[in-house]
Amino acid sequence: MEQELFAYWLYTLRGIGAKKRHELQQIYGNAEQIYYGDKTKLKESPVFSEQDKTLLGKPETVKEIKHKMQRMEQRGIRFCSQESEAFPKKLRYIPDPPYALFYRGMLPDTDRPAIAIVGGRNAGYESREIAAGFGRQLAENGIAVVSGLARGIDISAQKGALDIPGGKTYGVLGTGVDICYPREHIEQYMLMQRRGAVISEYAPGSRGFRSNFARRNRIISGLSDGVLVIAAREGSGSLITAECALEQGKEVFIVPGNILDPSYAGGNQLLKSGAAVVTDIQDILDGLGAFWDINYSAQKKKNEVMLETAEKIVYAILGFDGIHISEIVAQTGFSVPQTMEVLASLEQKKLVNMVGQHYYALKI
Question: Order of strands across the sheet with 100-105?
Fold first, then answer.
C-alpha cells in the first residue's frame, strides 16, 4: 500500500508524462526509489526542465500525499499502478500499457473472460439492438463486456449486459472517472460501479480531449480477450480499438452488414483482412477457445444444466478472488437469507468455496 502512495505521487506530478516517467524509472527504479533518490542524478539527463527538477527535488511530504490520496478515496475513487499486484494482468504486457489506473468499482477479474463491443456512435436502431443482444448473451455466459460508455453501440452493449442479473461490464473513459460523459448515461455509469467498474488512466477531474478517446481504445482491447465490432464506418474510432486488438494478439470479431450501408463499411473491410465473422453468440464462444480453456464453453453449458435460475445469477457474479456476501446481495437484489441458501447449494455442488468470513469464490 505504501508503494502505491509513491506511485500516486509520481503519476500525478504536473508535467511528468510517460516519457519522463520512463526516464526516471531507468535512473532510479520504482516510484519509492524515485521519491527518495539523489536528485543530482537528474543533471545528467537532458529530458527534464528546471521546473521538473524543482518539482522532483522538493517533493510533497508523505503526509501530504497520503492526505490527497485519502480525499480521492473518500469520493469512491481508487488508484492502482503497475507496481501493484492488483494491476490487471491483461494490461501489463500490451504495447504502451498505462502506468496506472483510476477506477470506481472493482477492477476486472483476470480469471474471467471479457469481450469488448465497439461500433458507431450514430448506429441505427437495428444495430443497437444487435449490440444489446450480444451484451445480454455474453453476460448470460459469464463473460464481461468492456466498452467506452459512448453513445450508440457502446452503451447499447453495456445496457444489455446490465439487463442480466449479475452481468458485469466495464466502462473505459476518456475523462477522469468522476466525470460521466455523455451525461445522459449517468444511470449506467452509476450501475456499472456496482456491477463492474468505470476505469480511466486520466486523473480525476480530467476533461475529455479528443486524443484521450483514441488512446483509451488500447485499454478497452487490452482488458478484453477479443473485440466485437458492430456498425463501424470507415475511419470510425472503433476501428482503432480493433487495430489495437490485433497488435495485442487478440481476436477481432465482426458482425457483417449490408455492403450498400456505409455504417458497416469499416467492419466489412476488416472482414477482408481476416477478421472473424459473427452471426451468433456461439461464434464468439468458439473463438474464445484460443485464449481460454477449450472446455470453457462446454463447462458453462454443463453448469447451466445443473443450476437453478438463482444459482446461475450468483454463480455469474463470483470470481476466483472472493466477494463479500453483502456485495452479492447488492448485485443480485436477493435477500440475505435467499443468498445464503443459494451459496449453500453451490457449495454442496462443489462449485463455490467460502474463502473467509462471509467471502465466497468459485472453486478452482
Answer: 78-81, 100-105, 196-200, 169-172, 144-147, 114-119, 226-230, 251-254, 276-277
**Pairing mode, strands 196-200 and 323-324:** unpaired
Residue-wise pLDDT for 41-83, tens only, equals: 998 889 999 999 999 999 999 999 999 999 999 999 999 999 9
Residue the block writes with cell 455474453: 138
Residue 214 maps to which CATH number? 3.40.50.450
355 in any annotated domain: yes
Residue-number span of the structural domain to which 219 is assigned: 114-290
Q: Which of 290, 315, 332 corresponds to the end of one domain?
A: 290
* DSSP annotation of 104: E
Domain count along the chain: 3
Instruction: Please give the model's pTM, rounded to 2 decimal places.
Output: 0.80
Q: At a CB cut-off of 8 Å and minimum separation 6, what does 190 contact?
A: none
- Helix-helix angle 265-272:237-247, to 10 degrees: 20
CA separation for the pair 280, 287 (Å, rounded)? 12
